[in-house]
User: Fold these one by one.
Assistant:
Number 1:
Amino acid sequence: MKIIICGAGQVGRGIAEKLAAEDNAVTVIDTSAELVRAISDELDVQGIIGHGAHPDILEKAGAAEADMLIAVTHTDEVNMMACEVANAIFNTPTKIARVRDQSYLDGQYRALFSRENTAIDVVISPEIAVGDMVMRRLSLPGAMDAVYFAEGRVIALGIQLREDCPILDTPLSQLAELFPDLEAIVVGIERGGKVFVPHISSQMQAGDVVFVIASQGSAARTLGLFGHEEPPARDIVLGGGGNIGQYVARQLEETRPEAHVRIIENDRTRAEEIADELQKAIILHGSALDSEILHEAGIERADIYIALTNDDKVNLLSALLARQEGARHTMSLISTLEATPLAGPLGIDSWIDPRAVTVAEILQHVRRGRIRGVYPVLGGKAEIVEAEALETSPVIGKKLRDADIPEGVRIGAIVRGDEVFVATGDTEIRAGDHVVMFALADMAEEIQRLFRVSLEYF
């Protein structure tokens, strides 16, 4: 596919890196010569300096021949206008816009982005996507990562194994024997910075990060078996009252009225704004890096502290401080790859990469056709993929042990109608099944081969 990306920031770069690695023809537009030069030098993409909504720049980028335009600049209005121009002048088939300002997405204005009113095919809201991810993590305490597939019937869990994990040094083949009714399977392991798909004889070790694909009904039990039987958080402190913090607090008010929520916000004007918007949450004006403010927020009795500012340093350090001051668990947004390796050593229990969440949202639309969901995990070293099996797939009608599944792919669950099956060697995939799998980052072509998805879907 030929894809134009407007915006060479963290999200634009993440999308470009992913799509270029999969042999798409990618062109990136940005007004910053420095960003364009960096992305052109480091990735196999074409870079153009200019304004992504200007017709002459889009023409130079080849909008007339492009299959898709993805507008992810920092300005909503530029993103929306880029899609409109691409549609009106160049008839670009698919237009995706990132929209961050929540006023555009308010329910009373939902008709704004209808097909009758705009040329935008897909609207991506990073704040809502990240906020929803935070809420899902809160519903499964103990999980480092929790990604939902097949309309929520299958969950991919990332779990950090501690010394007290009761199933350490147990061959994976024995787990099925010990827990025959558990609808869950270990599909990926990160150990010492390396990611691999385990064999049935593999054993888990303390310090491993494992990915488990489970049915929705088995997720909580799975966490308990892996040493993370933890009650849902009721006492919650949020560090940062921006769009994400406000969204999470509002969702907690609406869906978990028993929760006690406090928000620490450093900007006085913003603190006053969210105090007016929210009904129950307590808003404190001050820095999340100030231990006195943390104690005023009751950090010593908090079930969880969640760092949601737009500054990785503040998030990491405030989460560390919150842990030292008594918070039982910590969660943090981490936007840069450089900061991610610090999370574990600092004792942060769970972290969310907003860039990865946004890239995952967009990849679902880039990999159209039979690819229903894609989510990068472990810093982009692997993915969880949901695909629909076609009649022409070479895995149809064969037991998985005979289906020539490559080493870098592990099928975890099959969704057939309303039923969910955990994959075993005896499992047979049928046409129309939704298959949820773990795959190393370089396995896109192998997944294509397995499911007979033509290149246009990637």
Number 2:
Amino acid sequence: MKIRRLISKDRDRLRRMAIETGVFTDEEVKVAMELIGLALGDEEQKDYRIVCAVDDQDQPLGYICYGPVPMSQGTFDLYWIVIDPGVQGQKIGSKLLDYLEEQVRGLKGRMILADTSSIPSYEKAQRFYLKKGFQEAARIADYYWEGNDRITYCKKI
């Protein structure tokens, strides 16, 4: 497995991957695809950086979308991390997160923030962040809708 930049031929597979996880709503998938479109449409933009973990046939197994937080010094947002359900549990998410941490260190970053939901379908993501050394930094009750809190995790680099 290697990690490389997003390329246009990845778009359909990444969309399918996001849908097949069974976690994301149609609206969330739409937003993910908008960010993929922005990243592909303007390689010079720095807000949304997307890299893919790919197999030996150069097919995406997962991807991560991240970027610097405007008007902050060394803070980065982890917007999306999506792994093909067929290969979950094979440490691909961990390798993508390790890649992100290396990039943030190289850019003199101080911290990575990751937002997620409090509903049961996001419990796997919550456990993943905690296992990878993130700590819950904030929780906003009923943020997404009543009974669905926004949880912000932080990892200091």
